[in-house]
Design brief:
Blueprint lengths: L1 H8 L2 H22 L8 E6 L3 H11 L6 E5 L2 E6 L2 H20 L4 E3 L5 E3 L4 E3 L3 E5 L10 E6 L7 H8 L3 E6 L2 E8 L2 E5 L10 H5 L7 H13 L1
Parallel strand pairs: 8-9
Antiparallel strand pairs: 1-3, 2-3, 2-6, 4-7, 5-6, 7-8, 9-10, 10-11
Length: 225
């Protein structure tokens, strides 16, 4: 069964794409087997790719959060996040959840939810994403969070704008920037609309703690004052 599935994936175009992703995943595994965690994100870009190629890669990767796969009008990006990237995005997520709990806001976490629209020729996987309130079967997150740790990736705002994600936060060099969808383009705002009242400068100031648990304790104590 497995060999049949692999043969189906390996069409003339699919063979090259599948081979690339397999090699990329092996290289990533070898990096993590060493005595240190990679400090840079790693990107592979496949140009002239079809939507079917993109779907094959998602199927081949399976139900994993990495590598993350994006699609933008014929270009596939395969991104293997560094340990630092993953630590920052997870800690931001934890602090967002602390803020929501302190303010009695219902939320659901959806991690790197695969968002895609064939008609728009776009697909993306956030670092973290959230739905707020009680929504039985959400079609999109209310908030996507992205960490910019290594340059060279696709413009995910260009992808998200056509997918219809209403708000995106970008962490970059210690700051969190807010982008809100207006029509089909994002505008940068000084404050979040999805979580009104959250102080993102304050939240970001706790990301330098030596452990995530320390960041949570310190942030919770600050919110209680």
């Amino acid at each position: 069964m497995k060999s049949r599935r692999f043969r189906q994936l390996c069409s003339v175009r699919g063979r090259a794409v599948a081979g690339t992703i397999i090699a990329f995943m092996i290289a990533r595994a070898e990096l993590f087997d060493r005595d240190h965690t990679p400090q840079e994100d790693h990107f592979v870009h496949l140009h002239g790719a079809t939507w079917a190629d993109y779907e094959r890669l998602l199927e081949l990767r399976g139900d994993h959060s990495a590598p993350r796969i994006q699609y933008l009008e014929g270009t596939i990006e395969i991104m293997s996040p560094s340990g630092t990237h993953e630590s920052i995005k997870s800690t931001i997520g934890c602090l967002v959840e602390v803020w929501c709990l302190e303010h009695a806001i219902e939320f659901s976490t959806y991690g790197s939810w695969t968002l895609k629209k064939k008609r728009k020729k776009r697909g993306a996987e956030p670092d973290e994403c959230y739905v707020f309130g009680r929504v039985a079967a959400p079609k999109l997150p209310d908030l996507a969070i992205e960490v910019t740790w290594t340059s060279g990736g696709l413009d995910k705002l260009e992808i998200y704008s056509k997918l219809g994600v209403p708000e995106v936060w970008y962490w970059n060099a210690g700051r969190i920037e807010v982008y809100r969808l207006r029509g089909e383009r994002y505008v940068r705002l000084a404050a979040s609309v999805a979580l009104r009242g959250i102080d993102l400068v304050e939240l970001a100031s706790f990301l330098d703690r030596p452990t995530t648990s320390q960041a949570i304790r310190d942030y919770r104590a600050a919110l209680a004052r």
